[in-house]
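During the reporting period the student researcher (J.K.) took over the structure-prediction task from the postdoctoral fellow and processed the backlog of single-chain submissions. One of the processed entries is reproduced below for the supervisory committee.
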Amino acid sequence: MAVLTDPISDFLTRWKNASRARKEDFTAPFSRMKAEIARILQEEGYVWSYEVLPNDGKPRIKVKLKYQDRTPAITDVKRVSSPGLRQYVAADRMPKVLGGLGLSIISTSKGVMSG
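J.K. obtained the following structure tokens:
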């Protein structure tokens, strides 16, 4: 098994691949950050549900994808800040995503939030 240097990018790639293949759901190794991302996307109506699956001491997260007329609820996902190139921005300077039609998910000292 390969060592992941960027587990969030791996999670997003699994998401995009499952969505493009019109899969009902996908699984990935569990982390609290991934669960928080899935929770926000469920609250915002982009996914049906998510759950944590026990797996012999290595839990996994399962996300049930949402479609509208065979079109994925999420059509594009981008990672802005990565482990090798962190991006910092003040709360009042957060850029709008797709002119206000998109969603940004940010990690703050108070937890993971949507903006």
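The committee noted the following: Residues 15 and 67 are 13 Å apart (CA to CA).
J.K. will present the remaining backlog at the next meeting.
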